[in-house]
């Protein structure tokens, strides 16, 4: 499997819980390297644009309200099979269904406040990375 990049968000609930380091440590100890990182309080427009694919879903407004409720950590992770690896480390969307030992099982409260986002495919990873990071802020191959 080739080296890939994926986009990660540590969501407002996990930032409020003070577990940024614990989550990043899971990435690093599982072969994912942080190649871009910044903390940001998303505007409503940024959150709506990021989750535009869900705009017709009943949970869209709650999702956007939650994503603008506090600062988040935006990151690009790089490594072998990074997209699937990150999704495995995150666990299922609903923390009640997430495997023990996954980030969501350990740090998330609910399907709304579920600690992390991770890209689900190479195409979405490329779009999501470019949405928040200009190429000059991604330190690949360091
Ligand atoms: P993912 O984050 O595991 O990829 P998606 O289906 O892409 O899950 O959904 C994006 C986000 O929308 C989820 O992480 C979660 O915060 C929220 N979400 C998804 N489904 C529901 C739901 O049924 N109720 C409330 N929020 C949801």
UniProtKB/TrEMBL annotation:
In terms of superkingdom, the source organism counts as Bacteria
Q: How does it assemble?
A: Homotetramer.
Q: What is its EC number?
A: 2.7.4.6
Q: Matching SMART domains, A to Z? A: NDK
Look up and give the organism this protein is from.
Thiobacillus sedimenti
Q: Which family does it belong to?
A: Belongs to the NDK family.
Swiss-Prot/TrEMBL catalytic activity: a ribonucleoside 5'-diphosphate + ATP = a ribonucleoside 5'-triphosphate + ADP; a 2'-deoxyribonucleoside 5'-diphosphate + ATP = a 2'-deoxyribonucleoside 5'-triphosphate + ADP
What's this protein's name? Nucleoside diphosphate kinase
Q: What does this protein do?
A: Major role in the synthesis of nucleoside triphosphates other than ATP. The ATP gamma phosphate is transferred to the NDP beta phosphate via a ping-pong mechanism, using a phosphorylated active-site intermediate.
Where are the active-site residues found? Answer: 117 (pros-phosphohistidine intermediate)
PANTHER family under this entry?
Answer: NUCLEOSIDE DIPHOSPHATE KINASE, NUCLEOSIDE DIPHOSPHATE KINASE DDB_G0292928-RELATED
Keyword annotations: ATP-binding, Cytoplasm, Kinase, Magnesium, Metal-binding, Nucleotide metabolism, Nucleotide-binding, Phosphoprotein, Transferase
Positions of the Nucleoside diphosphate kinase-like domain: 3-140
Q: Where in the cell is it found?
A: Cytoplasm
Q: Which Pfam families match?
A: NDK (PF00334)
What residues does ATP bind to?
11, 59, 87, 93, 104, 114
């Amino acid at each position: 499997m080739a080296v890939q990049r994926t986009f990660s968000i540590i969501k407002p609930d996990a930032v409020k819980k003070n577990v940024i380091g614990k989550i990043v440590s899971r990435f690093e100890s599982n072969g994912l390297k942080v190649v871009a990182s910044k903390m940001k309080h998303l505007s409503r427009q940024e959150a709506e644009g990021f989750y535009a694919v869900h705009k017709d879903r009943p949970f869209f407004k709650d999702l956007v309200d939650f994503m603008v409720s506090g600062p988040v950590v935006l990151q690009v992770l790089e490594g072998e099979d990074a997209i699937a690896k990150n999704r495995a480390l995150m666990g299922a969307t609903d923390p009640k269904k997430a495997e023990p030992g996954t980030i969501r099982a350990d740090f998330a409260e609910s399907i709304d406040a579920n600690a992390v986002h991770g890209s689900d495919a190479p195409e979405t990873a490329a779009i999501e990375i470019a949405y928040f990071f200009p190429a000059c802020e991604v330190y690949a191959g360091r």
